[in-house]
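Reviewer comment 2.1 asked that we show a complete input and output for one of the modelled complexes. We chose the uridine-5'-diphosphate-glucuronic acid case, as it is the one discussed in the main text.
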Amino acid sequence: MKIKNICCIGAGYVGGPSMAVIADKCPDIQVNIVDINEKRIRSWNENDLSKLPIYEPGLDKIIKRCRGANLHFSTEIEKNIANADMIFISVNTPTKKEGYGAGQAIDLKYVEASTRKISEFAVGETIIVEKSTLPVKTAETIKEILESSNKKNKQLKKFYVLSNPEFLAEGTAINDLFFPERVLIGGESLEAINALSSIYKNWIEISKIITTDLWSSELSKLIANAFLAQRVSSINSVTALCEATGANIKDVSLAIGTDKRIGKYFLNPGPGFGGSCFKKDILNLVYICNHYGLYEVSSYWQGIININNWQKKRLTRLIIEKLFGTVSGKNIAILGFSFKANTNDTRESPAIDISNDLLKEGAILSIYDSRVNYSQIENDLNKNDKLFNDQSKEGKWSYQKDIYKTAKNADAVVILTESDEFKVLDWSKISKNMRSPSWVFDTKGIINMKEASVQDINIWTVGQG
Ligand code: NAD
Ligand code: UGA
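Response of the prediction step:
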């Protein structure tokens, strides 16, 4: 099976970068990324590359090289499905908000809608690739929906379903796609697995391509995210112990991480993990474990989320306590609103919960994030409006474009992402403009302590007793 034409359904944080890299590395393959969101597709087709819908270092250069040649963004879903030999499903898979399994199970409605379209419009032999992160056994549902068209139509269609989860992290997506530690392909048909492998082999060593059955591949993606999130919760739980005992989290991370069996990565403390996936994927894992009656296993994984929620609350409480037990009417500068540095993505960002809790206490927030725009923050902070019982006591927030203005007259500066620009701040300039006694809460442990500590500010750093 030689692949000449790819269609990817879903032009998001995964579909966009992953297909752009395939187009870049495989000039002989036409890659069409389709989406129901017209605005998003318009942004992908913007001449001004600073207006692409997602920010990823290096992505603009690839789009410049490939767009219009063998990479296309469009809303013509049916036509592109019909022309494709291989179709990636890369749509969103959020946690169900209502109904059976709400708050835990994955809402598969976008996957189902895409699969129905494929079933109806695909022509001849087509390989369907699950790129979205899915509950284990979803391929069974996909196969069933795909086959339904054969029951109605005389024209026989042949489908092969593969699982090929994506492991890229936002902010480093292009590098992760160019140099992945592994590519995972699960499937039943060797022919289909080989067709997908031959695409990746254009730039990835064969030894890095792992092939498994469908269920192991689907489950591995959930478990990979659960293990990563587990490390963040583990180190964050230790920050509290360090603060209580006088130990230093940086030394503890170094000391444990130099043991190869533990490893040095993903041991950075912070305000809790954010992002669109860790929480939803663990909740899904919890749901699946409960479904199979594995209650002890489910409560083990639920613990990772509990610690994450606790860390966000703990830090908010700590800020309030340090500011003499009240933040009502006090100016607080929030530096960093996305869920991590180098992305404009704010989904599940700890900054949302921490800002909302401070607003509930009556704080006046100045928010700065060079990658996140005003309307995104407004949208995120308004989502929880209904939770506030007494809105008259609520604080206010403003959007800032200059870090130093953000900190003007502030009682406290709260650093919530590890953005490079926060590592080189001029603390003498900041401290002069703050109200005394002034505080810096470094929830990521990134500021230059040598420079900051000589200024007239109190510094609190996560995990430092
Ligand atoms: P996203 O929300 O950024 O993009 C999904 C896109 O799918 C949206 O633009 C949406 O309009 C489109 N879509 C939904 N239904 C559609 C339909 N029926 N037809 C056409 N388009 C449709 O989501 P994302 O962050 O790219 O994540 C996609 C999947 O990849 C999820 O399952 C996620 O768990 C997984 N994943 C995400 C990341 C990440 O870093 N964001 C990394 C690895 C895996
Ligand atoms: C994560 C995984 O790293 C990817 O492999 C996976 O493909 C992706 O989820 C997904 O399935 O969506 P991502 O969420 O983009 O990627 O970013 P991470 O770098 O993993 O960070 C997640 C959160 O953990 C961030 O809030 C980050 O600040 C936090 N984190 C990470 C820490 O607090 N400490 C660390 O040491 C590492």
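Residues 9-15, 34-37, 40, 77, 90-93, 110, 113-114, 132-133, 166, 168, 170, 276-277 surround nicotinamide-adenine-dinucleotide (ligand 1) (CB under 6 Å). We note this here for comparison with the apo prediction described in Section 3.2.
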